[in-house]
Amino acid sequence: MKTNRRHFMKAGMAMSTALLADSALAQDTTLIPSRGPGEMIDSSVTYADRSPFVKDAKMRGSANGLSGGGFTPLQHSRGMVTPSGLHFEVHHSGVPEIDPSEHKLLIHGLVDDEKIFTMEDLLRFPSVSHFHFLECAGNGMGEWMGPRGKTVQQTHGLTSCSEWTGVPLKVLLNELGVRGDPKWLLAEGDDGARMTRSIPIWKAMDDAFLAYAQNGEFLRPEQGFPLRLIVPGFEGNMNVKWIRRLEVGDKPWWTHHENTEYADPRPKDEIRAFSFYMEARSVITSPSGGMKLNGPGFYEISGLGWSGAGTVSKVEISTDDGKTWQGASLQGPVLPKCHTRFTHPWRWDGKETTILSRCTDDTGYTQPTYDEMYKLQGPIGMMHNNAIQKWHVAQDGEITNVR
Ligand SMILES: Nc1nc2c(c(=O)[nH]1)N[C@H]1C(S)=C(S)[C@@H](COP(=O)(O)O)O[C@H]1N2
Ligand SMILES: [Mo]
Hints:
Elements lengths: L1 H19 L3 H4 L32 E2 L6 E4 L17 E3 L12 E6 L5 E4 H4 L5 E8 L16 H5 L2 E10 H8 L7 E6 L6 E5 H6 L2 E6 L2 E2 L9 E3 L12 E7 L6 H4 L4 E3 L3 E3 L8 E6 L10 E10 L5 E7 L7 E2 L1 E2 L9 E9 L4 E9 L8 H8 L12 E4 L5 E3 L2
Parallel strand pairs: 4-13
Antiparallel strand pairs: 1-2, 2-3, 4-5, 6-7, 7-10, 8-9, 8-13, 10-11, 10-12, 14-15, 16-17, 17-21, 18-19, 18-22, 20-21, 22-23, 23-24
The site of molybdenum atom has 6 residues, from loops.
């Protein structure tokens, strides 16, 4: 690390001296700013686009009729925020078109006052803004049986991170007054799938909120416009989009998704329902599958760590297939239930190797290996795959998924 920094500083100093002197470099007219005015400001543009030179960061769709969505191109990600237009999507029955002036939210069940809220009503309540990751429990599902995805977009692209703004559930529930012995809250979406999930009331009263905005603007239709539930750190499926109904009750509803897809197999024919937490996980996004290193030398290893149970406390990197580990730098901000960017300086010697990362959160939990996951879930587990990801570096610099 020290030698790298010194190397950079030397190079930087050499550069500034060269610019000061009347050197050949300074004579190079291509370095002298001599550009005329740029394009005129187009007043008809209402939403600006990216540079035409930025072509690679694209969503990868996996549409399969109405059920499907898109994967975030994590290999091109920088920092911790996902641009709204690159946020992954999972829809069980397509994306409904909802006019916010007609959208309503019913809150009923074990409350003193049942009530229907319009969007206008909800926008008048005290709001919060929080950065949180959102991850589908099926992220990396295809990797259970072996390395399948070529790129990190394919292996890990069902996680994204946004700043979400909305009204805390506790504010609304306190406004209506809960009665009896409330234990659970049912959330129902207004799409064809009528996605319905039971949420424990303690979580509703803790940090769950109804979001109407994402990264400073109203939600994208695909993210649940005009209103969605954000249940920080819990499996993506519980973050019900296009939400239209909340019911307070004293037991879970055992809805379709709770009984089937989102229950996890356990040894001895057991099933774990209500997994809730997306546990600590990390992945190296650069260099990652499908990339090629351009010869030996310095590379920055960069990636993302996150935990639905709390805050990332450390990410460790191995550049020798797990024999030795070193702590990565956390770029910050390091926030709870949020993507955390890590970096690690690496000098590749040009030899074949395997690079991997593992994340530990502030509960003390460390991301497991595939062997450890198999013991827990069996080889046919599907959901909640948070195992350590390995990228193989070939002698020619080619990076491949060996997971
Ligand atoms: N109403 C509704 N809510 C939904 C879904 C859906 O199909 N309908 N998909 C769920 C699933 S499985 C996930 S992983 C997240 C994905 O949220 P995103 O599309 O905003 O990334 O939304 C959840 N909420
Ligand atoms: Mo999901």
